[in-house]
Amino acid sequence: MKESFENSSLSEPRLVIPAEWGKLKDIRIRAVTDSPQAFGDTLAETEERTESMWLEWIQNAKIYVIESSDRFVALAIFKQDIDGVWMINGAWTDPAFRQKGLSKKLFEQIFKGAKEFGVTTIELGVNPIQEEAVNFYKSLGFEVVNHHSNERMGDGKEHPQDVMRISLDQT
């Protein structure tokens, strides 16, 4: 059932806490179901994660959410990869809440937090066929810096992947 944006109260962007791992799992399952071509994990992999795996994810990343009626409706995961690059790794908004500025609020919160702990550059990967996402990221100041032709995504198919980067000195 789709929830009406106008009739719901939305939280400000905030970090997920460990006790909310079940709500994190719920939104990630909805995200992978809605846009499997945008995520590297499959629905089965997402559903099979254990509580300890979700708690580890919360501990090792800064996971920002917006909540409505005790349910997460927008998500952006910010973490440092194994090469030391800070990445936005999985952003998604529930279709009933799109075009309401929630992603922009999440990204503004990420930029603010990143600056506070000295991060100057952020990258993300996006499937270039997702024109709305690409245009949104460009509107924030991200630029394409690399292209990979074949990345296996959650739908089991290989898709192109653009790496986009923003310098926080510009924001």
Description of the molecule:
The protein contains 5 helices and 7 strands. The protein has helices at residues 21-34, 43-48, 51-60, 102-116, 131-140, and strands at residues 14-15, 62-68, 71-80, 86-93, 121-126, 143-152, 158-167. The protein has a 7-stranded mixed β-sheet with strand order 1-2-3-4-5-7-6, sandwiched between helices. Helices cover 32% and strands 31% of the residues. Mean pLDDT is 89; it is low at 1-7. It is globular and about 35 Å long. Helix 1 (21-34) packs across helix 3. The chain is of the alpha+beta class.
Keywords:
alpha+beta, 7-stranded mixed beta sheet, globular, 5 helices, 171 residues
Strand residue content:
25-35%
Which residue ranges are poorly predicted, with pLDDT under 50 across at least 5 consecutive positions?
1-7
Given helix and strand content, the structural type is: alpha+beta
**Spatial sequence of strands, sheet with the most strands:** 1-2-3-4-5-7-6
Number of helices: 5
- The CA-CA distance between the termini, in Å, is 37 Å
Our Rg estimate from Cα atoms comes to: 15 Å
Number of strands: 7
Order of helices and strands: EHHHEEEHEHEE
Average residue pLDDT: 89
Shape: globular
Helix content: 25-40%
Main pleated sheet: 7 strands, mixed
SSE layout and pairings?
Layout: E1 14-15, H1 21-34, H2 43-48, H3 51-60, E2 62-68, E3 71-80, E4 86-93, H4 102-116, E5 121-126, H5 131-140, E6 143-152, E7 158-167
Parallel strand pairs: 4-5
Antiparallel strand pairs: 1-2, 2-3, 3-4, 5-7, 6-7
Give me a quick take on this structure.
The protein has 171 residues and is an alpha+beta fold. It contains five helices and seven strands, in the order βαααβββαβαββ.
